[in-house]
Every structure is written in C-alpha cells, then in structure tokens.
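--- STAGE predict ---
source: upstream dedup step, 1 unique chain passed
mode: sequence only
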Amino acid sequence: MRTTRVLAPLKTVKSKATLSAAELSKNFDTVPVGLHILSSRGIILRVNATEAAMLGYPIKALVGRSFLDFIAPEQRDDAWQRFQQKLRGVKVEKKVDRTYLTKDGRRIFVTSEDRVLKGKDRRILTALIDITELKALHEQLGELQRSREIGELAAGFSHEFNNLLSAILNATTVIAKMLSSADFTSPDSAALLDIIKDCCLRGAQLNQGLICFARNTADPFSGHETSLGSIVREAVTLFEITLNTTGVTVECALEDGVVHGNEAELNSAVLNLLINARDAIPRSRPGAVRVELKKVQLRKKMKAAQGNVLAPGEYLRLSVSDNGNGIPKEIRGKVFTPFFSTKDPVAHHGLGLSMIYGILIRHKGGITLETKEDVGTTFNLFIPSVLC
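--- STAGE serialize ---
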C-alpha cells in the first residue's frame, strides 16, 4: 500500500526522533500525527492531542496505561516483542501497520514508527498515522480493479471463443464441400471432425475458467507434465487448416520437450501468436511465419517483458516470427497492455498479448519481444523445462 503523501508529515517526526524528549516538547502537540512517549516498561508517559483525538480518549485517560491496551489483542504479542527488540537495539522494520482500538470500540488502522530517544532511561517515541480511510479506499480500488479484470477476462474469452468458432465454421464449410462432392471418404474429413471436437472441448474449458474466476475460486487450469512440441504442432495444424486466411507460409523447427503446464492455455497462447503474426503481414507481400521450439539454458537471470525476471535454469523457448512491418519503437512498451492494439480497433480489442503474458506468468515463464520496422517481429516464449 503506497502512502507517500499521507506519510509526508512523518519526515518531521523522523528529524526530531533522535532528539531528547525535552527537545521535542515544543512541537509535540503541533505535529499532525499521533505521538506518544513510552517508558522502558511500555507505559505511556506522554501523548499528544492528535493521538488522543484519534483514539477518542482525553489525554489524561491515556497517560499511565500500557500502550498494549489500545492495540488489537491478536497483535499484542508481536507489538511487545518489537518494543523489546527496539529497546535492545535490534534492527527491525522501520514501519509496521497496526490495528488500534478506539474508546467507542471501533478498529482503526495505523502506520506505526518507533524511535529510541536519547537518555539513560531508554524511552521510545512512537508516531502513529491513521490510514483507516486510505485502507478502505485501497480495498474499494481493489474491488474496482477486480471488476475490471473480470471485464477484461470476459472480453479475452470472447476473443478466444471467436477463434474457436471461426475454426469450427471453416471446418464445417470444408466438410459441406466434401459432402456435396461425394468426397467424404477423404482422410482430411476425420482430421476436420477432430478439430471441431477439440475446439468444443477447449471452449468448455475456457468457459469454466471464466466462471471460476468470477466466483474467486481456485484456478481450474491445473497443470501437469505435457509435451510442448505436441501442443505447438497441434496449434500450427489448427491454424493452417482453419485460420490461415491470408495464405502465409508457416515453417516449423521443433525440438520436443516436456513442461509442467496446462494444454488448453498453452495452445491458446501459441494460436494467438500465430494469428498476430498473420495479421502483422501486409497483404501486399508474400507472408512467412517461422515457429521454432528449442531448449535453452539460462546461466543467469534474464529480464523479460513487463519487468518479469526469469531465474537461471533450463527453459523451452518458443519463437514465433513474422516478416511484417514490425512494431514502431514508440509503442513497443505498450503491446502487453490490455486493450492496446496495433490492429484495427473495430476488429480487435487488443487482449491477446496481455493474456499470453498472464498465461506465461502462471507457468512461471516469460515473454520477450524482438522487432525491427519493415523487417518483422519475433515473440519469444520461455517456459521452464521439466528435466527428465
């Protein structure tokens, strides 16, 4: 929780905290944060009007009592331990969030910071900032963000369903032509029926995922060891038969490898990259897409998109390259942002890459971008390899 502006007055307290209690006396009641001074036994020796108003007590009712009396019961052991550590000079976190109890029984949330004052008696000055309203606002924003995420996710699933429905529609069109030409004995007919079946199954999985997210239950996309090469080959086949509407050439160079992942999600990621590559190539030139799957060893940490950092280890790197126009430098940092798109805003809502990024994060992987204007773009997906 960021409280930079709210905590600004605390700088004044910090600058005074190394002074003696006597030197603090002049400004003690004028500082706009709660202040109290504790004895080495945790007894409140002095408290300012700001803290008294915060807790709803007169100043006289606070002086002489243990500071623990005003802290929520479940936090008292930790508060006392921190107090003792502070007296002994043990380094602890400068700030800690606490729940305090007011006179009328309410719970308020504060950020607390302690300083040991100069002197033989080892007194402690504590500064309290009421963050109750800030915390409530933070929770409201969290709910708002969650509502937005549900909306984004729903739009993303709509995008995925459109892909699946396009594949089903194209496959049924081909089957209809086979029926009219009495060519239903062709080996391709069985493959087309399999595609329809697989698309329906994936649609059901995606729908269950959306329902589960909306209910805030556990993610149904539980992973298991699976062949990434098989997933990529299946996605490429689906793309070439049903979604390669512009006739681009797809070249594959695939090493096999095992990852711990979810087949439906990974298939969706690959299919989205292929569609993006197709759409990035102008119709005025022969389109070419290259798909490469290779084992790589990261010997040190590597930066990926959106500040993600990949740990050293063995990964399977899936690269999807196109010979399109490339991505302009000024917008490269935005391509993984939801709703941002380099495509026609009417036809595309721009959630494909942000969803791919989310899928990779769930698989403990990452994605990088290489692009050059008028040459093309390569997206590299890194997924931890399962060492057999």
